[in-house]
Amino acid sequence: MTLIQPSPEMQLHIRGELNEDEDTRDSDLEHIKDWLSKQPHLPHFDDDGRIMTFLRGCKFSLEKTKRKLDMYFTMRAAIPEFFTNRDVNRPELQEILKIVRIPPLPGLTLEGRRVIVMQAANKDVLHPNVADGMKLVLMIGDIRLREEVTGVAGDVYILDASVATPAHFAKFTPTIVKKFLVCVQEAYPVKLKEVHVVNVSPLVDTIINFAKPFLKEKIRKRIFVHPDGYESLYQYVPKDILPEEYGGYAGPLDAIHEKWVKKMEEYTDWFKEQEDIKTDESRRPGKPKNYDDLFGLEGSFKQLVID
To answer: Which fold has domain 1-275?
Structure first.
C-alpha cells in the first residue's frame, strides 16, 4: 500500500486539527460545489473526494477553499510545462525516475502527518529538464488529492542533500523555482509543517538562501538542518516510518519509490483526462489573471540574494 490511512483514533485527532465537523462537512462540500458550478471561468469539477481534500487542507474555511481551488485551476492553465504530457511512461520522465526518489512514505507520524522524501541518486548525472522533475512532484500531489481519503494533519519533507552540487543547483533558475513554489503554496491544499535537510554540505546554505525569497515567512521558520547525522531527525520523524537508508524500519527507499512509479502508471489515463481541467481566463468575471499577476517575477529577482 502506497499510503496507509490513519487509524480511527488518529482520525479523531486529525479532524480536530483540521476543524472538521462531521455535522457540517457535507453542507460545506455542497456549498463549494454550488459555488464552483456558478463560476463561468472554472471547469466542470464533480469530484467530491478532491473537494473534501481541499476543504481539509484549508481547515474548512470556505473562502480559503474557493481561493485555493481557483488557483489550482489557474495554475494548470498558466504553467502547461507542469500539467501537460503527464505520462510517466514517457522516456523523459522515466530517465528522471531512475535518478531521483520523491516518494511519500506509507506511514504517518504520531501527529498524523505524511512524510515525503526527496533524494537524488547520483551526483554525476544531470537531467536537463527541471520542469519535468517538478511535473512528477505535482503528479504525486494530484494522486494524493484523491487518495488521502480521510485527510492528514500536514506534510513533512525530508530533503537529502547528499549529492547536491553546484552543477545541479545551476539548473534551478529563479523563474522555474518561483513558478513551482507559487503553485505549491497557493494552488495545493498543503499544510507544510516541517522541512528537514539531511546529509548537508556547504552548498545547502546557498540553496536555502536562494529559495527563501519565494517562501512564505511561516514556512521559512519551519526549515530544520541536520548537520550531524539522523539522531536529531528522529525527534520529529519516528524510525518506524523512515526508510532503512535513514536508520528506519520501513524498508528500502527504492521499494517505496517503485510502488509510486507503478501508482503513477496506473493513473496514466486519468492524467490525460485532467489536461482540460483548467481555467478559461476569457470567461473570468472582471480582469483575467495574467503572468505578472500570478508570478511577479521581476520583483522577486530584485530581492534575490545568494551568498
So the answer is: Phosphatidylinositol Transfer Protein Sec14p (3.40.525)
